[in-house]
């Protein structure tokens, strides 16, 4: 294996899942509330069904896939 | 912690030998699955925190390593034959590993202890479950920590990101096993390391032994990481159910907080594990692809067997 650089994006969109965000210190949710970030990577909900917005709580897994997004 | 109670002839021999290193008698064959399981659990524990009433040098005692080898071989054979009976064995292409893990988890139809806790479990059942779970959660993530030096660059970095979070991101108060210990205390249970090993049902010991076996052997690094992925991928939603059940029974506070933390943390960890650890490991070491799935299956299957045993003992489900 070469000792070159690896791709290591700060933002990763998980197919049918959350947005992973690395190295953030705070996140503002849709209500304007600012949440302090305490872990190296957080998962932000993209399906809008999480019970703890703005964080993903895994609920996207029980939502049928391919439902049209509005 | 102190040496566990023997459960048969082999564990009796082992406990005596650990307490008194001078003993030279030959290890007898185990006389039950329970005996075999507690013996292997005890031998593995020598590589974690050990026992106050055993000699620390026992970890690398050749006579004991021989016993451990035989028990591990028997366990690995059992786990692999369960996997092949379930139709496993084919190696996915490296790029398909995260998807294959997801499919395996999606197909898992084992009974859910979290469902029972959420809706029906009474207080005694929940306390019993927490005592059983304490065998693992008081050393949470420790088996995977052994794998770090055995991984290529990308998988190693991702495992460290995950483990850093498991170990509290540098804050001892947020270390997951410590959160669980505080939860145990808050619900009136003992919180010291290994407190309830003597109460562990055999299925629980075997589940713990499988995790330690995979973590302790470099050869099994792929299986260890697949096991970790399946664990993380089946944690967020059940943890939320645990919170709901604990709240329903008025067991709010630190124990509920432990599970609450896992709703959020494992919604992140599952992606780190499936994609950044297992996915890149399969790309860098394609010969690990089959074992990644074997490990994931083993995690799901051991949990299903444990859940079946617990629900059966309570006279529910099945
Ligand atoms: S993306 Fe996971 S709960 Fe919405
Ligand atoms: Fe954890
Ligand atoms: Fe986790």
Automatic annotation (TrEMBL), chain A:
InterPro entries, alphabetized: FeS-contain_CDGSH-typ, MitoNEET_CISD
Pfam families listed in its UniProt record: zf-CDGSH
Domain named Iron-binding zinc finger CDGSH type: residues: 32-66
Alphabetic keyword roster: 2Fe-2S, Iron, Iron-sulfur, Metal-binding
Protein name per the record: Iron-binding zinc finger CDGSH type domain-containing protein
Annotated source species: Nocardioides furvisabuli
From TrEMBL, chain B:
A Pfam entry, by short name: Haem_oxygenas_2
Protein name per its UniProtKB record: Iron-containing redox enzyme family protein
Protein species of origin: Nocardioides furvisabuli
